[in-house]
Amino acid sequence: MREVSLSELERMEEGSFLLIDTRSSDNVRYGMIPGAIHISETELMENAARYARELPDGRTLIVYCQRGVRSIAVSEALADCGRECFSLAGGYLAWLRASTNKVEDGQERQKKAEDSIRGKFHKQLFSPFAKACKEYRLMEDGDRIAVCISGGKDSMLMAKLFQELQRHRKISFDLLFLVMDPGYNGDNRRLLEYNAKTLGVPITVFESTIFDVVDTVEKNPCYLCARMRRGYLYSKAKELGCNKIALGHHYDDVIETILMGMLHGGQVQTMMPKLHSTNFEGMELIRPMYLIREADICRWRDWSELHFLQCACHFTDTCTTCHEDGTTASKRLETKKLIAALKETNPQIEANIFKSVSNVNLNTVIAYKKDGVRHHFLEEY
Questions:
Q1: Which of 38, 135, 336, 363 is deepest in the core (most CB within 10 A)?
Q2: What is the pTM for the complete model shown?
Q3: Strand ranges (DSSP E) for 65-128?
């Protein structure tokens, strides 16, 4: 088996090897090992001979996937084409685990992240965050907000933006940084706690058994998981005296949801910036990241040298999701790719999708629903 361990990799001379991330583009969006390049497993396996010729001569190739399983076949394919190539044992998750065990100056990392929000990324992150809060009236004096943290880049950044907004003291509100552990494995739980501590976010953690429940469901387990998470968060937040929960959905989530509704659901709808709960009286859901672009979140993450969870459930916690093909790609990922392709010929496509649900002309709509009641244009024709 052609493998190299992390300790062996660290002893290799700088410049003597090339790291190649073979995971899907969706996985790569959540972070890569510094210095690595991205070539998907499918691309490498289908064109091993070409990459063996074209990748820099004289350098050992080190390929990795999520857990170090699927990359073994890739390393063997490249080796069969004449290149010295190894798979990184344990993959990206092993590197991530090792990086969280290193002793670092947490205060320095926290200061760097906060300074970047106030300086380098103020226009891209804090300004649209504050604008969404004001434009959609997401907060009022006296609110107690449960900032729901999943462990990913979006919710962790949301926590820091809330702390920065509170520092300005234009509105008086309280924050509770709420984490629900639905059954994370030990590594994912430690990574979440490590990042919270590093960033100076005082989290409140409570347990649930959601992952165990959805493991037994064959049809739409992700939908059920999302619904159950929402319910647990509402319930715990209300128990702890909160009147609002904040989720980390961003601008890209909004436009993808609009397009997915049309293409796969046959309806025009959007992800609202705020909602009243129908099951928990007096509770409200808000989305203050509504106007923030995902690319800017990624740039902040990389600038701050942070690494976060992707989706840590039992369905994506296995190496079967390290690859990308027509059978495993999610509808959201397909929609994301479609938007990127459309943007190549129309740079305004994202803004136009976003604006479309704010410019609905009811005089040109065949039918619509309001409060569950369907209305047809012939009623007033």
A1: 336
A2: 0.83
A3: 85-88
CA dist 183 → 206, 236, 340 (Å): 11, 16, 34
Q: Give ∠ CA 45-51-56 in degrees, rounded to 5.
A: 145
The residue written with tokens 């044992």 in the block is 89
> From CA 55, how far away is CA 377, in angstroms rounded?
61
Return the beta strands (E) in the chain as ranges.
Answer: 3-4, 17-21, 37-38, 60-64, 85-88, 144-148, 174-181, 203-207, 244-246, 274-276, 284-286, 367-370, 373-376
Same domain for 91 and 111, yes or no, is: no
Q: Does residue 96 share a domain with residue 222?
A: no
pLDDT tens digits for range 222-268:
777 778 888 889 999 999 999 999 999 999 999 999 999 999 999 99
Angstrom distance (rounded) from CA 149 to CA 139: 18
Task: Report d(CA 198, CA 372) in Å as an integer.
Answer: 46
Say if residues 146 and 237 touch (Cβ distance below 8 Å). Answer: yes
Residues 288 and 146 in one domain: yes
Question: Cα separation of 274 and 139, whole Å?
Answer: 10
Q: Among 229, 204, 225, 230, which residue's Cα sits nearest to residue 213?
A: 225
Per-residue pLDDT of 305-315, as tens digits, reads 888 876 555 44
CA distance 59 to 147: 46
| Residue 51 domain boundaries | 3-100
Angle between helices 153-168 and 106-118 (to 10 degrees): 70
CB 207 within 8 A of CB 247: no
| 164 lies in the same domain as 263 | yes
Q: Which is more confidently placed, 141 or 103?
A: 141
Q: Is the distance from CB of 208 to CB of 180 less than 8 angstroms?
A: yes
1: its two tokens: 């088996």
Q: Give tens-digit pLDDT for 33-90.
A: 989 999 999 999 999 999 999 999 889 999 999 889 999 999 999 999 999 999 999 9
C-alpha–C-alpha distance, residues 358 and 271, integer Å:
12
Overall domain count for the chain: 3
